[in-house]
Design a protein that fits this description.
The structure holds two protein chains of two kinds.
Chain A lengths: L14 H6 L14 E7 L5 E7 L1 H4 L4 E5 L21 E2 L5 E7 L2 H10 L1 E6 L6 H4 L21 E5 L2 H6 L3 E9 L11 E6 L6 E5 L4 H12 L6 E5 L11 H17 L3 E4 L2 H7 L6 E9 L5 E13 L5 H11 L8 E10 L13 H19 L3 H8 L22 H12 L1 H14 L3 E14 L9 E7 L5 E5 L8 H13 L6 E3 L17 H4 L1 H24 L6 E4 L2 E4 L4 E4 H9 L7 E6 L18 E14 L4 E12 L6 H20 L5 E2 L2 E2 L17 E7 L21 H13 L10 H6 L6
Chain B lengths: L7 E7 L2 E7 L5 H8 L18 E4 L2 E4 L12 E3 L13 H8 L9 H14 L5 H7 L11 H17 L1
Parallel strand pairs in B: 1-5
Antiparallel strand pairs in B: 1-2, 3-4, 3-5
Classes of the chains: A alpha+beta, B alpha+beta.
Bound molecules: FE2/S2 (inorganic) cluster (2 copies).
The site of one FE2/S2 (inorganic) cluster has 12 residues of chain B, from loops.
Chain lengths: ~775, ~160
């Protein structure tokens, strides 16, 4: 839809602060008398701790306190089994045994070095493949098979065995993807202070999910949630990541704030951030596909195994998403899919943009390409033959129906392949490659659909609050958080549209758990789709109140009134008074309440736990990519030359911001595909900064031909869908498919780095 | 810890102002800017010269302030993001272009990006696309995928050119 603000490229409401260097990020937030904290990490990834001696550390000048598990006033264990301080055992390289707080950074570092940890080294489960063996050691003694709690989900549709019997060809393939680092440019930082006006603690920092932090800090401190206040600074990127790590940091700093009575800050170095923060989960994905001679997919069986790491608070959600999306956007009658997750003595997985989407889309879109090749079909024709269309039911049984859940992929594949000249290039590149010794060209296709919002992963409720001040200016609060994705701008647009006012009236307020309402985490691309509904709800309530005031002021029934163009108007457009005058009258003499809470909850979803059949997500977004590459066979280097991409996302509330989100995600997907790899040896991280772990630079970005497709989404605010994650999923399989087209080599592991491309396997250092 | 005895005095011009500071041999230019002068617009992302979040101009050239020892900046002229605005706080055309092009997401890389753009456009007022990519290749951005940043640089170049 096109409104006064919705559908328009309004400029970011927080742009000025950010281009002038005035935006206060966590490391820029300073408090009087603050202490600096430094962590003592596990000296080896898996140890039994026999003694911790802090005496020497305490004698270092300037040291105020050293905290260990002994100083924790409440529970030492947080959600997902994360310990505030490791006491008997350290289970991975990022476990923290003690934290020193001192007057200066240097003194804190010296004290952390002076803490003596005595330990015995233990054997460890260092990889997913090791954890999948029988009879291995247990990471957590009460979980002997290392199966992470609540992470097993079966999906059943039709009769897979019967489908395989009807198939002419049955293919089996195994795919693997490893960790991906979030690599936000701002490392984690928090400051925790004894509360200024009440009992408890205030937490400041770059935090994605303030209510989760509040809950866990309260439990570690043995306090109520009402006694902990979490306030956000500007957040320098998060993508799902500034969650577990900042939770751990905030809990440790709170313990030190109690011990010292002073504000305690902790700023991670990049190396510490790599060590402690959550990553994209690795997955082993085994696919079995049954095909009829005409190219119809008759049956699919998948077994997905996720590596959770030493602790886990996300795999129970991401695994569900994985199994629901394992079949891709295809009309497959018979599906059996199972997903598990394992503990290991390694860094851990969490939420990273796309959650488990990029992993399963890599597997399923490579599998589909392999199936086309097996049958000797063009990959575009094979997809067109099998892709979901209007009237189909998807893997979890939801029906695709115009006006409810769109089914645009067939059209999108045809149009975008046309724009990218797919068929012509498919042939001409082969001719080129026959002539060229080293430089080979390839073109690859990938297709996805993605459940938008939390769906069955959780309760997708959201909150907002709008207050109109006496002078007609407006304060907007959201229960969700701004991390750079543009949420403040999009929410302001929705509020201005619904209230009929100039967007300049709106000041978007900070996230502060003592003010905003707990709406759960800002994840799953739900800031606009669900959060925007809460803003809309608050705005419409307020508008109703304003019109009640308008009726009193003008004597015209409120059904015949509207607020539009910053004025009170009569139906037909006649201006009755300015917005300021209307507000003034509502305040005095009417004394109306010009403040409203908005709440959105989709209600219970009905999903069968034995089959995952049900209304898994409110809606789905769709995407198609065509990627052209050049491969240098002498070095194994892939250059991505051009990307043609189309996304269907309902209404783009702000097309420029949508574009930025999708291209930003595309770049992260490009890194995942080509070079982002966290190397480990026996639980130790070998890549710990941007010299060893490469992320895309300006020189890596290809030309992008970008297209947006609209659709109806009755559930979203003004028809919007969540889009923060969709952009990351498609590029890896499309590059792999293009690589196969170029050189005939099929790679089933990411990333496609030089050695994999050149010799077909990874080299270790 | 304080090692008073090791400290030496350095002086430099930062955003047109003459300043003096007492620094240790290991103190970085970044520490002087952020901790002594409280110029917090210059960011620290990696501390090893890889991310460009700490980019400032030193004698007219871009440097990573995390890799420059304060002692070696003695006598230098430094410009940080705080010095890019006009005297009344009005936005530089590059800053305005970053806003207009949607090149600012989380904003953590933005000060460094703007300084690198400033340096590019001072040397080469109408850069070609590959020159823009090259000039910003030391500045990592995890949010934007860079295309909106390229657009901002082109927009700034056009507007600054038209003005002249
Ligand atoms: S902090 Fe200086 S280059 Fe990253
Ligand atoms: S805008 Fe976030 S790192 Fe560039």
């Amino acid at each position: 839809m096109q409104g006064t603000y919705v559908g328009k490229n309004c400029l970011r409401v927080d742009g000025y602060e950010k281009v002038t260097g005035k935006a206060v990020f966590s490391a820029d937030f300073r408090m009087e008398r603050q202490l600096y904290a430094k962590s003592v990490y596990a000296p080896k990834p898996h140890i039994r701790i026999t003694a911790v001696n802090i005496e020497k550390a305490l004698r270092i000048p300037g040291v105020a306190a050293v905290a260990t598990s002994k100083n924790v006033p409440g529970a030492n264990e947080m959600f997902g089994r994360f310990p505030a301080f490791a006491d008997q055992e350290a289970k991975y390289t990022g476990d923290v045994i003690a934290v020193a707080a001192a007057e200066t950074r240097e003194a804190a570092e010296a004290a952390a070095r002076a803490v003596e940890v005595e330990y015995e080294e233990l054997e460890g489960l260092w990889s997913l493949d090791a954890a999948m063996q029988e009879g291995v050691s247990a990471v957590h003694p009460d979980v002997p098979d290392n199966e992470i709690e609540y992470t097993y989900f079966p999906l059943r549709k039709g009769d897979a065995e019967a489908g395989f019997l009807q198939s002419d060809t049955v293919m089996e393939r195994s795919y693997f993807v490893g960790w991906q680092e979030q690599a936000y440019i701002e490392p984690e930082s928090v400051v925790v202070s004894p509360a200024s006006f009440h009992h408890g603690y205030d937490v400041y920092g770059c935090i994605q999910n303030p209510y989760t932090i509040r809950q866990n800090v309260a439990s570690v401190m043995g306090l109520h949630q009402s006694e902990i206040r979490v306030v956000l600074t500007a957040v320098g990127g998060s993508f799902g990541g500034k969650d577990e790590s900042v939770m751990n940091m905030a809990a440790r700093c709170a313990v030190l704030a109690k011990m010292t009575g002073r504000p305690v800050r902790m700023d991670l170095t990049r190396e510490e951030s790599f060590r402690e923060s959550s990553k994209r989960h690795p997955f082993r994905m085994n696919y079995r596909m049954g095909l009829a001679q005409d190219g119809t997919i008759k049956a699919l069986q998948t077994k997905l195994t996720c590596q959770g790491g030493a602790y886990n608070n996300k795999a129970q959600f991401s695994n569900w998403r994985a199994v629901v999306h394992t079949a891709g956007p295809y009309r497959i009658e018979n599906i059996t899919a199972d997903v598990h997750a394992k503990y290991t003595n390694t860094i851990y997985g969490g939420a990273y943009r796309g959650f488990s989407g990029p992993q399963v889309v890599f597997a399923s879109e490579t599998m589909v390409d392999e199936a086309a090749a097996e049958l000797g079909m063009n990959p575009k024709d094979f997809r067109l033959h099998n892709v979901l269309r209007e009237g189909d039911t998807i893997a979890c049984g939801q029906l695709l129906k115009e006006g409810i859940i769109a089914a645009p992929l067939q059209k999108m594949i045809q149009e975008l392949c046309g724009m990218a000249d797919f068929d012509a290039k498919w042939n001409s590149f082969k001719e080129h490659n026959a002539q060229s010794k080293y430089l080979k060209k390839g073109i690859g296709l990938a297709v996805t659909y993605r459940g938008a919002g939390l769906g069955g992963e959780g309760v997708d409720c959201s909150s907002a609050m709008i207050t109109i001040c006496r002078d007609g200016s407006v304060q907007l609060f959201s229960g969700h958080t701004e991390m750079g994705q543009g949420m403040r701008t999009v929410h302001s647009q929705i509020a201005a549209e619904a209230l009929g006012i100039d967007i300049k009236r709106i000041a978007f307020k900070h996230s502060d758990t003592s003010v905003t309402l707990d709406a759960g985490p800002t994840v799953a691309s739900r800031g606009t789709q669900s959060g925007g509904r809460a803003v809309l709800h608050a705005a419409l309530k307020l508008k109703d109140e304003l019109l009640r005031g308008g009726e009193k002021k003008t004597g015209i029934p409120k059904e015949q009134l509207d607020v539009a163009g910053d004025s009170l108007v009569k139906q037909g457009g006649e201006v009755l008074c300015s917005f300021d005058d209307l507000v003034g009258y509502c305040v005095f003499p009417l004394g109306l309440n010009l403040s409203a809470q908005g709440w959105y909850s989709p209600g219970l979803s009905h999903i069968d736990p034995e089959t995952q059949q049900g209304d898994c997500y409110q809606t789905y977004t769709n995407g198609v990519i065509i990627t052209e590459i050049t491969v240098d066979e002498s070095t194994g280097k892939i250059t991505v030359e051009k990307i043609t991409i189309g996304y269907e996302l309902g209404t783009a509330v702000n097309p420029d911001i949508a574009y930025g989100q999708l291209v930003g995600a595309l770049a992260q997907g490009l890194g995942y595909a080509l070079f982002e790899e966290l190397e480990e040896r026996n639980g130790e991280l070998l890549s710990a900064n941007f010299d060893e772990y490469l992320i895309p630079t300006t020189l890596d970005m290809p030309e992008v031909d970008f297209h947006l497709y609209g659709s109806e989404n009755p559930e979203g605010p003004y028809g919007a869908k969540g889009i923060g994650e969709l952009g990351i999923e498609l590029i890896a399989p499309s590059i792999g498919n293009a690589l196969y087209h170029a050189v005939g080599r099929r790679l089933r592991e990411l990333p496609f780095n030089l050695e994999r491309v050149k010799i077909g396997k990874a080299l270790t250092r | 810890m304080e090692h008073k005895e090791n400290k030496t005095a350095v002086s430099m011009t930062v955003n047109g102002k003459h300043i003096q500071a007492e620094v240790l041999p290991e103190t970085r230019l970044l520490d002087v800017l952020r901790e002594e002068l409280h110029l917090l617009g210059t960011k620290e992302g990696c501390s090893i010269g890889e991310c460009g979040a700490c980019t400032v101009l030193m004698n007219g050239r871009t440097v990573n302030a995390c890799m420059v020892l304060a002692g070696s900046a003695d006598g230098a002229e430094i410009m940080t993001i705080e010095g890019v605005c006009g005297p009344e706080g009005e936005l530089h055309p590059i800053q305005q272009a970053f806003i207009d092009a949607g090149a600012v997401h989380c904003g953590f890389c933005t000060p460094g990006m703007i300084i690198s753009t400033l340096s590019l456009l001072m040397k080469n007022p109408q850069p070609k696309d590959d020159q823009i990519q090259e000039a910003l290749s030391g500045n990592l951005c995890r949010c934007t995928g860079y295309h909106q940043i390229f657009k901002a640089v082109r927009l700034a170049s056009e507007r600054m050119h038209r003005k002249e």
